[in-house]
Protein backbone atom coordinates (compact mmCIF):
# COMPACT_ATOMS: atom_id res chain seq x y z
CA UNK A 1 0.00 0.00 0.00
CA UNK A 2 1.20 3.49 -0.78
CA UNK A 3 0.40 6.48 1.42
CA UNK A 4 0.75 9.90 -0.20
CA UNK A 5 1.58 12.04 2.81
CA UNK A 6 0.69 15.35 1.11
CA UNK A 7 -2.89 14.14 0.70
CA UNK A 8 -3.52 12.89 4.24
CA UNK A 9 -5.41 15.08 6.66
CA UNK A 10 -6.66 14.72 10.19
CA UNK A 11 -8.84 16.60 12.60
CA UNK A 12 -5.69 16.82 14.73
CA UNK A 13 -2.74 17.89 12.57
CA UNK A 14 -0.35 17.19 15.45
CA UNK A 15 -1.00 13.47 14.96
CA UNK A 16 0.07 13.29 11.31
CA UNK A 17 3.62 12.14 12.10
CA UNK A 18 2.17 9.45 14.37
CA UNK A 19 -0.16 8.33 11.57
CA UNK A 20 2.69 8.15 9.05
CA UNK A 21 4.78 6.13 11.51
CA UNK A 22 1.85 3.74 12.01
CA UNK A 23 1.45 3.16 8.26
CA UNK A 24 5.21 2.76 7.76
CA UNK A 25 5.28 0.27 10.63
CA UNK A 26 2.63 -1.78 8.81
CA UNK A 27 4.89 -1.99 5.74
CA UNK A 28 3.33 0.83 3.70
CA UNK A 29 5.38 3.20 1.57
CA UNK A 30 4.88 6.73 2.93
CA UNK A 31 6.02 9.28 0.37
CA UNK A 32 5.16 12.74 -0.90
CA UNK A 33 3.26 13.14 -4.15
CA UNK A 34 6.37 14.52 -5.84
CA UNK A 35 8.14 11.23 -5.20
CA UNK A 36 5.63 9.55 -7.49
CA UNK A 37 5.50 12.25 -10.15
CA UNK A 38 9.12 13.15 -10.74
CA UNK A 39 10.67 12.44 -14.15
CA UNK A 40 12.35 9.23 -13.03
CA UNK A 41 9.04 7.65 -12.06
CA UNK A 42 6.93 8.63 -15.08
CA UNK A 43 6.15 6.09 -17.75
In short, what is this structure?
Helices cover 35% and strands 14% of the residues.
Query: What is the first-to-last residue Cα distance?
Result: 20 Å
Low-confidence stretches: none
**Helix-residue proportion:** 25-40%
Apparent shape:
flat
Oligomer: single chain
Give the helices and strands as they follow along the chain.
Answer: EHEH
Name the strands of the widest sheet in spatial order. 1-2
List how many beta strands DSSP finds: 2
Strand content: 5-15%
Keywords, please?
43 residues, alpha+beta, two-stranded parallel sheet, 2 helices, 35% helix
Write structural notes for this entry:
- This protein is of the alpha+beta class and 43 residues long.
- 35% of the residues lie in helices and 14% in strands.
- It has helices at 16-25, 33-37; strands at residues 2-4, 29-31.
Secondary-structure map:
Blueprint: E1 2-4, H1 16-25, E2 29-31, H2 33-37
Parallel strand pairs: 1-2
Amino acid sequence: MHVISDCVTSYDLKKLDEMFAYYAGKGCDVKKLGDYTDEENTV
